[in-house]
Amino acid sequence: MAHVLVVGASNGIGLETVKAALAAGHRVRAFARSAARIELTDPKLERFTGDARKAVDVAAALDGVDAVVQALGVPIRDLFGPVRLFSSATNVLVPAMEKAGVTRILAVTGFGTGDSADAIGVLQRVPFRLVFGRAYDDKSAQEMRIRKSSLSWTFVRPGVLTGGAGTGSYQVLEDPSSWRNGTIPRADVADFIVGNLQGDAYVRKAVVLIR
Ligand SMILES: NC(=O)c1ccc[n+]([C@@H]2O[C@H](COP(=O)([O-])OP(=O)(O)OC[C@H]3O[C@@H](n4cnc5c(N)ncnc54)[C@H](OP(=O)(O)O)[C@@H]3O)[C@@H](O)[C@H]2O)c1
Fold first, then answer.
1. What pLDDT does residue 33 have?
2. CA dihedral defined by 112, 108, 146, 171, rounded to 10 degrees?
3. Phi, psi of 151 (to 5 degrees)
4. Domain of 180?
5. How far is 87 from 93, CA to CA, in rounded Å?
6. How many CB atoms within 10 Å of residue 3?
């Protein structure tokens, strides 16, 4: 069993990851500015209130953990201004992990980040850039920073996220020639993350996840 830090744990994929990790028997430190509002009851859960852009919060949160899941997100209304959360938080997290000797990180970015931008369909490219361009440029900077590190990383690049129950039946697209968009429940993304907290199946790899 691992002791895992989930950064961005109060909502979305992060919260689904907290639930799945607890169900799998792991200890979880759930990090978010609104961590106190996480409505789960489990003796293996620790709520940790902090800001991912603040080095002092992140260093404290890394104490004693074996793996980190970075599942940060910005509200839709913030997509139309400059987005710096992903790169800023990563510029804090990576050196803090290296200093603390924590090596495993699974970073949630998205289909369209980094070299998967080339796989976006021709018709989707312009609208995708208009709405998500600033966020995905910042996610690409996030991935670049992690790639340059000594960490054992996996980039988790889901397609369009949906709610509801996980299906346990989804595709993990590893070969760039197979990358394409699709939908996937957040709970299935969490299932992939928790299944790969340990082991080296996808270390130093980027995968696209769709149903
Ligand atoms: N929507 C899609 O179809 C889609 C597709 C592919 C990829 N993605 C990506 O998947 C990721 C997860 O999205 P989601 O919708 O599941 O999650 P989300 O609802 O956006 O949750 C974001 C989490 O990040 C935390 N957070 C934000 N700023 C923070 C800060 N400064 N310090 C600490 N925590 C912070 C939030 O908690 P607090 O606010 O309490 O701090 C929250 O727990 C995002 O990066 C998104 O871009 C989305």
1. 99
2. -70
3. -75, 160
4. 3-209
5. 10
6. 18
Which CATH number belongs to the domain containing residue 187 in this structure? Answer: 3.40.50.720
The pLDDT tens digits for 110-165 are 999 999 999 999 999 999 999 999 999 999 999 999 999 999 999 999 999 999 99
Mutate to test the pocket of ligand 1, among 69, 109, 161, 170 (most ligand atoms within 8 A of CB): 161
Q: What is the pLDDT of residues 76-95, one digit of tens each?
A: 999 999 999 999 999 999 99
Q: What is the pLDDT of residue 155?
A: 99
Query: Which residues form ligand 1's pocket by a CB distance below 6 Å?
Result: 8-14, 32-34, 51-53, 71-73, 85, 108, 110, 135, 158, 160-161, 186
Confidence of residue 4 (pLDDT cuts 50, 70, 90): very high
Cα of 10 to ligand 1 centre, how many Å? 9
Answer whether 192's CB lies under 8 Å from 170's CB.
yes
Sign of the four-CA dihedral 67, 187, 134, 182: positive
Q: Considering its fold, how many domains does the chain have in total?
A: 1
- pLDDT confidence band for 210 (50 / 70 / 90): very high
- Specify the 3-state DSSP secondary structure of 160: strand
Q: Which of 13, 77, 116 to mutate to test the pocket of ligand 1 (most atoms within 8 A of CB)?
A: 13
